[in-house]
Specification:
eight-stranded mixed β-sheet; 447 residues; alpha+beta; single chain; globular; 20 strands
């Protein structure tokens, strides 16, 4: 298979699918192709077993600053609007209560300050501060068995969107391929990207693709491809694998705990599964792994390509892992994967949410979890939190750790604007129609 296209998108996860949908439905680009190395769309990190199924708004994620929450909020509302518009029967998502829980005087004071003084109550009109009695009404097992002398407070909202990102990605691709100018190629791995006089040539396991512009939305592999073209030389990746533990019927919705300061990874939370609310998932853990995909030793070489094995990369890793809070955290997380010992070590995290939980109530979720590529700046020798985007000559590389899935359509909107610049006004993007299809369908507090 080979072909000539105006735009080729590499990667069929939620990010690539979002861009395919946005460009296919709301621009007049003549020809678009998406190439995905797996046999199915959204088979890796977007699969519903490989992430916490959370649509992140920034309201209960206490590792978010107000500024970051403002940026993430719009992205989440765009995707929520798509789901409200295109999934009325809720086959791809569910909507439940969610809250962040504070236990004890110090945590309650911190959460009250966040809500009243830091502006989160103003930014999120549906967010409410609730006490023990209301917490118990919504989540009985969160209060049951807890010391009655401990002060409790939660910030709660009904906007607890639980999302099957794999199914959502497939929906986006299915809707995009309704357009006659769109082709999707699965089982097609990109092995080389070269810059030509007028565009790019992508060599794949299924032939060559020539295009005027390309967007690489291949998760951890995006930086690998960027480096092959000379971009992103001051960046490496810290691949973090997340794992989960399962329990039966503990929670009705989502319950987050307060973030430990200085940690870049989300605090442990409990989530009722999107397709089976009788299953509660606890996690994620965060384990450093030398691979770009969970459980695939074949990607160790890809990790080494991205890492570069140079002095700057080693010094950056050493500086990050030398942190007196981060290093013990990383070491503790290695324990959670050990048989029996890991379950015992993780139980206190579950009991922070459900006090009466016992060891026999939880089991490790075998086969669950993906890899989130945390970006490392080798000049600053520090982690760059959030998404990374490298924009080159008619090419975009997206590296999207959490909350990349939540902001996938917003990211697609931004990339589509950039693509219009690449094409020098040859095509147009109907952003008003995009917003009418997505964010305009998100239910507001006054509705």
């Amino acid at each position: 298979m080979s072909g000539k296209y105006d735009l080729v998108i590499v990667g069929g996860g939620i990010s690539g699918a979002s861009l395919l949908y946005t460009t296919a439905k709301f621009t007049d680009i003549d020809s678009i192709a998406l190439v995905e190395k797996e046999s199915e769309i959204a088979a890796i990190n977007s699969d519903h077993t490989n992430n916490s199924q959370t649509l992140h708004f920034g309201d209960i994620e206490t590792n978010y600053t107000l500024d970051k929450a403002e940026k993430v909020k719009e992205g989440a509302e765009i995707l929520a609007g798509y789901l409200e518009n295109h999934d009325p029967d809720r086959e791809m998502h569910a909507k439940r209560s969610k809250m962040v829980l504070a236990v004890g005087d110090d945590e309650v004071d911190a959460l009250e300050s966040r809500y009243h003084d830091e502006g989160f109550g103003d930014l999120f009109p549906k967010l409410r501060a609730i006490g023990r009695d209301e917490i118990e009404e919504l989540e009985p097992k969160v209060v049951e068995g807890r010391d009655p002398s401990l002060d409790l407070l939660a910030l709660q909202t009904p906007d607890g969107y639980v999302v099957d990102y794999g199914a959502t990605a497939k929906s986006l691709v299915d809707n995009a391929t309704e357009e006659p100018n769109v082709d999707v190629f699965t089982s097609t791995e990109v092995t080389d990207v070269t810059k030509g006089y007028d565009g790019y040539t992508l060599t794949t396991t299924d032939g060559q693709f020539d295009c005027d512009a390309t967007v690489v939305a291949a998760g951890s592999h995006s930086l690998q491809m960027a480096k092959e073209l000379g971009y992103g030389q001051d960046k490496v990746l810290l691949p973090i694998a997340g794992s989960f533990f399962l329990a039966d019927d503990f929670l009705n919705g989502k319950v987050y705990t307060l973030q430990m300061k200085k940690l870049p990874f989300a605090a442990v939370h409990g989530d009722a599964d999107v397709h089976d609310p009788s299953i509660t998932r606890f996690g994620p853990t965060a384990k450093l792994v030398p691979t770009l995909e969970r459980g695939r030793l074949s990607t160790v070489g890809d990790f080494l390509d991205v890492f570069g094995l140079n002095v700057a990369a080693f010094l950056s890793y050493a500086n990050i892992l030398a942190d007196r809070i981060l290093l013990p955290y990383v070491l503790r997380n290695l324990v959670y994967d050990l048989p029996e010992v890991g379950r015992r070590a993780f139980l206190p995290h579950v009991q922070k949410v459900v006090p009466n939980a016992e060891l026999d109530d939880i089991e490790r979720a075998t086969g669950y979890g993906g890899v989130r590529p945390q970006i490392v700046d080798t000049k600053k020798k520090s982690l760059d939190m959030g998404e990374a985007k490298i924009v080159g000559d008619d090419v975009i590389f997206n590296i999207t750790p959490s909350p990349g899935a939540s902001t996938s359509l917003k990211n697609a909107m931004r990339d589509t604007r950039t693509l219009m610049d690449f094409f020098d006004g040859e095509y147009e993007f109907d952003e008003d129609a995009f917003r009418a299809d997505t964010i305009d369908n998100f239910p507001r507090a006054d509705e």
